[in-house]
Write a structure and sequence with these properties.
Chain lengths: 123, 123
DNA sequence: CGTCGTTATCTTTTGAATAATATAACGACT
DNA sequence: AGTCGTTATATTATTCAAAAGATAACGACG
């Protein structure tokens, strides 16, 4: 049996390569999986508040995410209305939808990378 | 100008894809960059204590890392001697050196992936 | 058997991120 | 003007992880 990384570890352990991925500008990191899901739910519910509730997240945290996103983008990706009919609400821009799509594809490539490395490790 | 992800963001921001990577078994994650550097320094100094100091890390934390590694591997990767000449000391096994090498190569492939994605994003 | 610097643990403290609480502002509509 | 549910923001608690501190055990060697 040729020396392999795999059998340095205890037998029976399910070793895998794992990681996380995000988009950042300078030190500010944003647009990981959480924010993307938030965008999707805002789009569906029309409300930051309800989107947050669905995710078991506080409104404050959701708002911070939205705010970070909006300050990093040329035009706000979440367009909000405070007050008004039904008290207000939020929708997401076309650019936001583009970002969601892009993020999904990026993530697919990343998980493929991880999978490949995990398989390679187990050889 | 065709619609591109890049110019959804504010002009002038240096957007990049970033991430982190580690090896894990079940829920236990280990062997990220920190532990690897620790192994290298233990190898050079012959002491967990000194290695930790060089990295500005507490001995306790270093020991926990070493302990986690040693309990995940078939044979201890850090072989320790408590007491004795000079009070004791630690060396690393050949397997540890293999792990260091493997991790370096893995990390190279990962940074290449990130770089590629960042470039693709900027097109 | 005393010395040495290290390994091995336990306990306490600190600090920072997260969550909870509270309150105000908003504006269409009746 | 009053109602509605939302957005906006500040303040206070809580939790949890990391750090710090303290103490004991270890064993070759003079």
């Amino acid at each position: 049996m040729p020396s392999s990384i795999k059998n340095i570890f205890k037998k029976g352990l399910n070793i895998s390569i794992s990681g996380s991925l995000w988009i950042e500008s300078g030190t500010e990191r944003f647009l990981g999986p959480g924010p993307v899901e938030l965008l999707e739910r805002i789009s569906k519910t029309g409300s930051i508040n309800q989107a947050a509730k669905q995710m078991g997240m506080s409104y404050q945290k959701a708002w911070r995410i939205v705010n970070t996103l909006n300050t990093q983008t040329a035009k706000p990706v979440v367009i909000v209305q405070t007050g008004g009919e039904k008290g207000g609400g939020s929708t997401i821009s076309d650019e936001a939808k583009q970002l969601i799509k892009y993020h999904g594809q990026l993530r697919e490539r990343f998980t493929a990378f991880l999978k490949k490395e995990t398989i390679k490790l187990k050889k």
